[in-house]
Amino acid sequence: MKRFFAWGNRLHNGESSIPFVGKARLWLTISGALVLLSLLVPLIAGFNLGIAFRGGSQFQIDNISDTSAARGEDIVTEVAPDSEPRLTPTSDTAVKIETNQLSDPQMQEVRDALIAGYDVPAEDVTSTFVGPEWGQDVTEKMLRALVIFVAIAMVVMALYFRTWKMSLAAIVGLFVVMIVTMGIYSVTGFEVTPEAVIGFLTVLSFSLYDTVVVFDKIRENTTRFQDKRDLKFSELVNLGINQTTVRSINTSVVSVLPIASILFIGVFMLGAGTLVDISLSLFIGTIVAAASTLFVASPLYALLRANEPAVREQEEAVRELRLKNGVDDVPPVIHAEV
């Protein structure tokens, strides 16, 4: 831990450096590949949609001793062979079974079979029908809220930072978080539920906050950059990212630890359910968001401004001054030991 803080101090002072901007094209290429993969995987494998989005029948069985998937799914399959049952433990003594949409007589038959198969009173087995319309309504509202959120975020950041390029870079980083997180859900087969969507939308706020913190330091470093001759504009941007790297990591760790605790409690103590769904999306999204801020949004901002006349003029002036003083045209920190 002591070495970590010492490393953080070296990054902040410029004694060490991670080449976020120097290797911007590499990071963006990797990010682009991940985004492309994350878009292709759902087209091939699809998503494991929860019952709220696909519709179907649901059975809740309480006060049982055996929560294994095989037993419950076998009971349902014997009565309704085409129901494709999926059993999820909700606690040590309860399970939830979701199936394709069943007719009323089929639901009653399955319920009776579960009562007999688990040898529990009738009141311990409940059945409900969930229509896909509710999930569609949630999806439409989520997309509408997402569009409004992105539009407001773009305008506010453009006004705050006084440049649309920072706003654009931040939004691109935001979309990377969204798409990669969706790709991870598709690859792993994690269930997409309304609670997972809520956690996912919450992650976007964290991602934006993390990006704004880093961008604020970059703006501080690049204020009146035209008059600076010690570092080029791109190097000033890179310094700002390095100075906030440890803070970004610490913020992410502090956020992930309680989420991981909730996830652990949800899985091993309370069983799968709302806690697991929301904490899982938060856990994945927070990690992706931290990486996106450092390796996508910030380097992209430097590239967006690289061809501005003022930036090119300042970088050329720094280069000429270094050559005049017999100094290599690279900042000393780029080759410092990390």
UniProtKB/TrEMBL annotation:
UniProt cross-references to Gene3D superfamilies, sorted A to Z: Multidrug efflux transporter AcrB transmembrane domain (1.20.1640.10)
Transmembrane feature ranges: 26-47, 142-161, 168-190, 196-215, 253-276, 282-304
GO biological process: intracellular protein transport
Predominant location: membrane
Membrane topology: Multi-pass membrane protein
Gene Ontology cellular-component terms listed: plasma membrane
Alphabetized UniProt keyword annotations: Cell membrane, Membrane, Protein transport, Translocation, Transmembrane, Transmembrane helix, Transport
A Pfam entry, by short name: SecD_SecF_C
Xref: InterPro entries: SecD/SecF_arch_bac (IPR022813), SecD/SecF_bac (IPR022645), SecD_SecF_C (IPR048634), SecF_bac (IPR005665)
GO terms, molecular function: protein-transporting ATPase activity
Signal as UniProt keyword: no
Protein export membrane protein SecD/SecF C-terminal domain segment(s): 118-305
SUPFAM superfamilies the record matches: Multidrug efflux transporter AcrB transmembrane domain
Compartment list: Cell membrane
NCBIfam families, sorted: transloc_SecF
PANTHER family (alphabetical): PROTEIN TRANSLOCASE SUBUNIT SECF, PROTEIN-EXPORT MEMBRANE PROTEIN SEC
Protein name per its UniProtKB record: Protein translocase subunit SecF
Protein species of origin: Brevibacterium celere
